[in-house]
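We both want to read discrete structure tokens more fluently, so let's practise on a single case. Would you write everything just below, so we can both look at the same thing?
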Amino acid sequence: MEARHVLIVLKHNGKWLLTRHSIRGIEFPGGKAEEGESIEEAAIRETIEETGATITDLVKFAEYVVMSNVTFCKAVFTGKVSMIDENPTLFETEGALWMTAEELNDCKELSFHMKDAGMVEIRKWVETYVQ
């Protein structure tokens, strides 16, 4: 199954980049690739649209299948923040939320997407392999 959805998991200056989805709660930015768009382009676009942060040096380090009414595959990326728009035009979210690991661990408003064992492993990978 080809990945057509993206999840962006990264840290910048010691803090995780998250966003607050109006319905689901706090989560990492992500979304679906548009027609004709690569998953790398989708990762960059979704991060800008949801947080105002522009990312570069993308690294795709995982894929996983989401089992739901419509099963789909999601590619997981990390990267570097090259620019932060302090007044972005946002789509579907309330913008960037920067959290330390402790704040993220203690957060009571996490999206259901953020609460499974796979997300713990994804965060560990970024902590271990990304400087």
